[in-house]
Design brief:
41% of the residues lie in helices and 15% in strands. It is built from six helices and six strands. A hairpin with a 5-residue loop joins strand 1 (41-43) and strand 2. The longest helix has 21 residues, at 122-142. It is globular, with a radius of gyration of 32 Å. 21% of the residues are buried.
Amino acid sequence: MKLRILKFVPLLLSALLFAGCESIPGMSDDEAAGSEAAPVTESGEGGQGSTMSAAEERPAWSGSPLENPESPLYTKVIYFDYDVDQVRSDYYQVVVAHGEYLATNPAITVTLEGHADERGSREYNIALGERRANSVRQILLAQGVSDSQIITISYGEERPAVTGGNEASWSQNRRAVFAY
């Protein structure tokens, strides 16, 4: 008798193992897997639920627009290509945003600091830094900024952001800086 029962033990264990892997009746596997990641709903006024995303949970920025990391005004350093004084296309909209901000806030002034990397003579780099600051200035003036709101200064190669004698360092030093 005992021997007969032992023959059915492996069969019984297999049946229990497959029964544990079976999906929920009436629900597809996708629905069962997605049930753990359901959106968060909260009760609103009148008993209506609302779905909130992560972006909506963040409170609106209440500080200065110059300090908002999501604003183009947060970018205050404009980088230039080697031996070039024209604003690169990837920074043009940032400069325009600063121009719009200054035009709508006529009491605010900005100092544009022009910089160059260490290559070239000191005099040449002072002139290049000045041309870079003036290039940004021209875009600001085109946005309606008053001339009296802008001060330009060139530091040439005198105030490097990064020290080093390679392209990675030089590219960080070819810049114009908005100093509010």
